[in-house]
Structure formats: structure tokens, C-alpha cells
Specification:
Layout: H1 2-15, E1 23-25, E2 36-38, H2 39-71, E3 79-85, H3 90-98, H4 103-111, E4 113-117, H5 125-134, H6 138-141, E5 147-149, E6 156-158, E7 161-167, E8 170-172, E9 175-177, E10 180-186, H7 193-199, E11 204-207, E12 220-223, E13 239-242, E14 256-259, E15 261-263, E16 266-272, E17 284-292, E18 297-302, E19 305-309, E20 318-324, E21 328-334, E22 336-340, E23 346-349, E24 353-354, E25 364-365, H8 369-377, H9 389-393, H10 399-423, E26 427-433, H11 435-443, H12 465-481, E27 488-493, E28 499-505, H13 507-513, E29 540-543, E30 547-550, H14 565-580, E31 591-596, H15 597-600, E32 612-616, E33 619-622, H16 624-627, E34 636-638, E35 645-646, E36 656-660, H17 675-682
Parallel strand pairs: 3-26, 3-27, 11-12, 11-26, 13-14, 28-33
Antiparallel strand pairs: 1-2, 4-36, 5-6, 7-10, 8-9, 12-25, 13-23, 15-16, 16-17, 17-18, 18-19, 20-21, 21-24, 22-23, 27-36, 28-34, 28-35, 29-30, 30-32, 31-32
């Protein structure tokens, strides 16, 4: 009955007058457009949900009671709390604990446990967190990278979401009314542990676990994370309003550079919003502004509201209302940062986030959960990759601007996490913070004076940024530990560790130079996304961050390599040659090992994996050009960007962390695939047959009795 009260509370909050979306969407995607539902239907649906929930509450409560009764005998815990700190590194954690800088983690280690946590092959966030959620290896959940390739076009598509637009006219007798429907499919396979728990009446709060868009339906509440798009349908496109848009960086960019029209102290610029279809121009908002040079301020005017901006201070979240016809509105939120007025004008706008109070598509489950949190705690970022690493990489914002943004986002997420801890006294509370990952990506150069990214950059101002980050996580752990009771299990985990990213390896250039990848006659290298590749002669190609694909017959649209012995011979040949390859300039071997997919994972989706997963040595990673399918004239490229740390290396070199307030009862180090079956077991639910993880043996000091 207690759990039913939680769910009913969500329903009644929505039905009792919370402002709900004026527009909802099936999906916003590049070129896909999105379908708009009016606010009338949102309120109608909410009313029906509230009515039927109240009507059937006694029946559902009875069913849940008997389900829970069946597992109560084996239940060992009242509540499981999982604090996910993406990328927290065990070596750095140990160093800072030894220096006395992380007293709460030291206490947790002394009273419970601290171990390295084995990550997945490959060792990147979407893969590892998918294995965390499901307890299976990537061959069973089908997530191998952020992006994969369309098998026919060889162009990039998101690995976790499939978007398709169907033109299906509505027939009313002889009249046909044009109608477009956008379908969104969640591509991760295998069942999450919170879904399994929900089937047994265990309520879960699941906050921003990567690869959770679109949100799953289960007995609990969730916020989406990685791969949740912005309002434009991208993975995070900032806008730079500037007087010199030609300053845009060459090559791959997530930024939109918009020239301002200026007359005296007045300026004008359009804000580009979503597209309603691939054939239509994007909706726009007219932004007008006035430069107050005397006071070093800028005033912007949006929808009859004035906002005053001071240099290097973020605005609050500002609503951006894009009008679609007379009555329909699509709402997003963004923050502005005035970079400079002179000598050149530069104004940064964050990616336009889906408004959590009036979401244009569901970013939470139930769909109104984001609106409730927005009402309780204020507007917050809903974008999957919220911290704007591209804006820092491209020099639009500086390192202090990035840190300010990252910690503002962190504070919002901490509010949501602590709120869930206060409300959910039993069951499961999971929250993943990617602040740890993003700041390490952008500030790791400070830990190595020889890093190529230090050239031309200050090396002192933020020298302690990573130490400060770990200390701030320690402070949060202290707050969380104060909310734990003896029958609560707390686990602090990370999906992987971190290392330096000093040199990029362009696998496509290596394949081209060694005859495995062939360009069309007279085509010059340099095109993105494998442009000008001659697929009739190409046997292998690289894509994304994780490895190499064989151009396989009956899999790739223009495959030429036969499956079976021919494929295996080519894999072994590539493995041998790649592991022997030497970076002569640095006198090192960049590749520690090249792993054949079929020998390092199992399951029905192994063929969707890169055929060779590349395990780099520390200091190396797939180059920026390799990640976007570009052939260049250099195999080894120095990494000079702010993004100076990474984990896309050999998984054995970057384990995550595992802390718990209950000691582990054996000496075996855990793996991230062990978490799901362990949590199920603690609630008396056996592991699923397809789960690969083992149940961890905890020594809990107080046995829980319901």
C-alpha cells in the first residue's frame, strides 16, 4: 500500500492543478519533424489516469500485496540506494582519500568496501550503463557505442533510438487528410532491473541513468538521460550570436553561429527552434537586444520580457515559446551567457532544452513527473548530454563558464536525488551524475604537463579542478550517508575510470594506407562520414569510438567480405597488424589489443558490434576525425582540444569504482554486470536466466525483517 501511495501521489499532483504541457511530441529528430498533441488531450489523459488509478487502486494494491508477500521471506534489505558517479576513477579516488581530501569516502571504505569495478568491452558510458541496468554483456543488450551506422547508407544513427516518420492519411469518405506520425523505438534489448522489480511490486526512482530515452514504463518514476535530444532534435547544439560568424570552427561542430544585425546600440537575431517536418523551415523567435556599453550590460527582449545580462554570469532558465499556428505552442528553455561586447560581440545560448514543466515530448515516466519536479525545484536541464563540452572545445565559452554550467546542473540533479531519498523510504533509488565524467574529460590535461592540449593554454588557473570535483562528490556522499538507515544498502559506483587522451589514432587512415579501405578514383581524403569510400573494394572501416567493422556481405548494404572463414581471416590479420603498429614519433604502440567481438561477448546481437573492438594503451584513443568517419593524411594526431581525458581505451586499464556501506564477503572484485542481479537478489527475486552477472555476497550487519 505504501508504494501505491507514491504512484497515486504523482497522479493526484498532476490532476490537482499542476501546469502540464501545452504540447507533447512523439519525437524530435533531425529531419524527422514531430507530432504535436494539444494541451486539451494532455489534461484529458491525465484526468482519465487519475480516475482509473483511484478506481482500481484497491485491486492493484491487493495484487501487489500478494506479489510482495511471495518474496518477503528472502528479502534482505529495506532500501537500495545507488549513487552513480560517471567516470569516477579508482586510482584518483585512492590518491585523494590517502591525502585526507575525501573523508566520507574513506569512512565508507573503512566500514564497508572499496573495490575496482570491472567495466564492459568497450569501456564507454552507453555500453557500461546498459549492462548496469540489465546485468548482461553488450551482445545481449545491443548497445556498443553512442552511434552506429545505417547498414545501407553507412551514415550515423543513434544506437539506442530508432526514429521513423510515417505518412498515413486519414480517410473520411472520399476526403483524405494528410497526417504524419513519428514513431520512436527504444533499441536497447534485455530488461532493466527496475522493470523486473516493478513486476514484483518494488517501487524505484531511476534518475538520469544513461540510455533511458525514451523513458521506460515501469512501476516507479524516472528521468531520461543520455541520448535525450534538445528541442531541435540534436544531441546538444549551442548557439553563438556574434558579429563575426566566420569564426566558426572548421569540421564537425555542434554549434550554430548566428550573425547579429546591429544598428547603433540595438541588435536583432533570430533564435532557431524545432522543425515540424523535414520539408519545413525551423520555427523561429525574434530576439531583440540593446547594448549598454557604459555599464557593460546587454538587455535582450523575448516575448515581451526583458532580461539583463552581465558578462560571465549565466541567466536563469528562460522560456522560449515557438508558435505553431494560432493556438499551438512548443516550449523550450535555455540559458544565456554574455561573453563580450567589444571588440566583437559574442553571446552564448545553451542548447534549447525540452521544457520539463511543459515537455514537448516525454522525458520522464510518468510523463508529468518532470513537470512535478520543475514545480517543486525550478526549471532544469533535460538534455541527455547537458554540459556543453562542444562550446568549450570551440572556444565559445571558457573553462570557468563550463565549470559554472556543470555545477549548476549538478546542483539541480542533487535536489532531485535528495527529494527521491526523502520520499522513497523503501525500494530502490538510483541517480547517475555525469558531472564527474564531463569535468574530467575537459580538465584532465592539468594532471600531465606534457599533454599536447596544454599548448597555448593556461596551466594553473584550474589546476585543482579535478581534485575539487572529487571533494565535492565527497561532500554529497556525506549528505546521502546521513539519510541511510541500518537496513539500507548504499552503493557508489562508476561505469569506468579515466586516463589521459594525448594522441588520436585515425583507424580509417591506417586502413586506407594499408589497403583495407579504398577511396573512389580521384577522390581526395577529408570527407566526413566515409564520404567517397569505394565500397566495392573496401573490406574494413572504422566508425565511432569503439572499433572496426568488416564490410560484410548480407549485413552491410554493399558488403564484399563473405561471412565465415574469410571474415575470420581478415579479423585475425587486422588484429595482428594493429597490435604490431608503432607510433614512431612517440615510440609507443598505441593499441594494446584488438579484440574479436565473437570471442569477447555472447548473445543474439554480437553481429551488430564492431567486429574488432580496439583496446588502446593509455594516452591514445580514436581520433576526432576517426570518430566521424574522415580519412586524413595522418594516422596519429595530437589531441589539442580541451577534451583532454578519456576512457575509450582497453577496459582493463580503466575500471570503475565500487563502494558500499555493507562489506563484501569475498575477495573477488565485482563487475558492473553484477549490480542488477545483486539488487534483485536483495529483494528476494532470482536472477533472470539471460543475466551474466553474479550475485555479490554482502555481509550486512542488520538483517531486515518486514
Amino acid at each position: 500500500m505504501k508504494h501505491m501511495n507514491k504512484y497515486l501521489w504523482l497522479i493526484l499532483c498532476a490532476g490537482a492543478g499542476l501546469a502540464l504541457p501545452e504540447a507533447a511530441s512523439a519525437y524530435i529528430g533531425p529531419g524527422a519533424g514531430f507530432a504535436v498533441i494539444s494541451s486539451f488531450f494532455i489534461f484529458l489523459i491525465t484526468g482519465f489516469l487519475a480516475f482509473f488509478t483511484i478506481l482500481f487502486w484497491p485491486f492493484r494494491a491487493s495484487i501487489l500485496y500478494f506479489r510482495r508477500r511471495a518474496i518477503r521471506k528472502n528479502k534482505k534489505v529495506r532500501r537500495v540506494v545507488v549513487l552513480g558517479l560517471d567516470g569516477l576513477d579508482p586510482e584518483l579516488a585512492r590518491r585523494f582519500m590517502d591525502d585526507g581530501l575525501m573523508p566520507n569516502f574513506s569512512k565508507l571504505m573503512a566500514n564497508g568496501s572499496f573495490r575496482p569495478l570491472a567495466t564492459t568491452k568497450p569501456s564507454i558510458s552507453p555500453v557500461a550503463w546498459s549492462s548496469f541496468a540489465t546485468g548482461v554483456n553488450p551482445g545481449k543488450h545491443r548497445i556498443f557505442d553512442f552511434y552506429t551506422r545505417d547498414l545501407n547508407s553507412y551514415l550515423p544513427v543513434l544506437s539506442s533510438v530508432d526514429i521513423s516518420t510515417v505518412h498515413k492519411p486519414l480517410k473520411l469518405g472520399p476526403i483524405k487528410i494528410a497526417r504524419t506520425r513519428t514513431n520512436v523505438s527504444f533499441l536497447r534489448k534485455a530488461t532493466s532491473f527496475w522493470n523486473i522489480l516493478g513486476n514484483h511490486g518494488i517501487f524505484s526512482n531511476v534518475l538520469r541513468v544513461p540510455i533511458s530515452f525514451p523513458p521506460e514504463k515501469f512501476y516507479g518514476a524516472s528521468l531520461s538521460a543520455m541520448c535525450a535530444p534538445d528541442l531541435r532534435g540534436t544531441q546538444g547544439a549551442f548557439t553563438c550570436f556574434c558579429s563575426r560568424p566566420e569564426d566558426k570552427h572548421e569540421g564537425f561542430s555542434e554549434g550554430v553561429y548566428v550573425p547579429i544585425e546591429q544598428s547603433g546600440d540595438r541588435f536583432y537575431a533570430p533564435i532557431q527552434g524545432p522543425r515540424l517536418s523535414s520539408e519545413e523551415s525551423p520555427l523561429t523567435i525574434d530576439m531583440q537586444g540593446r547594448i549598454d556599453a557604459e555599464n557593460n550590460r546587454v538587455h535582450i527582449y523575448l516575448d515581451k520580457h526583458r532580461y539583463t545580462l552581465a558578462p560571465n554570469i549565466y541567466s536563469p532558465w528562460i522560456k522560449l515559446v515557438f508558435k505553431n499556428g494560432v493556438k499551438r505552442k512548443i516550449t523550450g528553455i535555455a540559458r544565456f551567457l554574455l561573453i563580450q561586447i567589444e571588440p566583437e560581440f559574442k553571446l552564448y545560448m545553451s542548447p534549447i532544452n525540452i521544457d520539463p514543466e511543459k515537455p514537448a515530448l516525454p522525458v520522464s515516466h510518468p510523463f508529468y513527473y518532470s513537470a512535478i519536479l520543475s514545480k517543486l525545484h525550478g526549471a532544469f536541464s533535460t538534455l541527455g548530454l547537458s554540459e556543453d563540452t562542444w562550446a568549450l572545445n570551440e572556444g565559445v565559452i571558457d573553462e570557468q563558464g563550463f565549470l559554472d554550467q556543470a555545477y549548476d546542473i549538478y546542483e539541480d540533479r542533487k535536489k532531485h536525488f535528495l527529494d527521491a531519498l526523502d520520499k522513497n523510504k523503501e525500494g530502490v533509488v538510483v541517480s547517475v551524475f555525469d558531472t564527474t565524467d564531463r569535468i574530467q574529460h575537459m580538465f584532465f590535461r592539468y594532471l600531465d604537463e606534457t599533454h599536447p592540449a596544454n599548448a597555448g593554454k593556461d596551466q594553473t588557473e584550474h589546476k585543482t579542478a579535478i581534485q575539487d570535483l572529487y571533494q565535492r562528490m565527497d561532500q554529497m556522499l556525506g549528505e546521502i550517508s546521513g539519510k541511510m538507515r541500518p537496513a539500507d544498502l548504499l552503493m557508489v559506483i562508476s561505469d569506468h575510470g579515466f586516463t589521459q587522451f594525448k594522441w588520436g589514432v585515425n583507424l580509417n587512415t591506417w586502413l586506407w594506407q594499408n589497403g583495407y579501405l579504398v577511396l573512389k578514383k580521384e577522390a581526395a581524403p577529408g570527407g566526413q562520414w566515409l564520404k567517397d569510400v569505394d565500397w566495392s573494394l573496401t573490406r574494413a572501416y572504422a566508425f565511432g569510438l569503439t572499433g572496426i567493422f568488416i564490410n560484410l556481405k548480407n549485413r552491410e548494404g554493399r558488403g564484399i567480405v563473405a561471412n565465415g572463414n574469410e571474415r575470420l581471416r581478415l579479423q585475425l590479420e587486422l588484429k595482428e597488424n594493429l597490435e604490431a603498429f608503432v607510433d614512431e614519433e612517440n615510440d609507443q604502440k598505441p593499441i594494446r589489443r584488438a579484440m574479436l567481438a565473437q570471442m569477447n561477448m555472447e548473445g543474439p546481437y554480437v553481429d551488430d558490434s564492431p567486429d574488432l573492438i580496439i583496446g588502446y594503451h593509455k594516452g591514445y584513443r580514436a581520433s576526432w576525425n576517426c570518430a566521424i568517419g574522415r580519412v586524413t593524411d595522418r594516422v596519429i594526431e595530437p589531441n589539442t582540444r580541451h577534451w583532454s581525458g578519456d576512457h575509450s581505451v582497453d577496459p582493463e586499464l580503466v575500471p570503475g569504482v565500487f563502494f558500499s556501506n555493507w562489506p563484501l564477503g569475498d575477495d573477488r572484485d565485482p563487475s558492473i554486470i553484477d549490480i542488477a542481479p545483486t539488487i534483485q537478489s536483495l529483494f528476494g527475486i532470482p536472477a533472470e536466466k539471460n543475466q551474466d552477472g553474479r550475485v555479490l555476497n554482502f555481509v550486512n550487519r542488520e538483517i531486515y525483517h518486514e
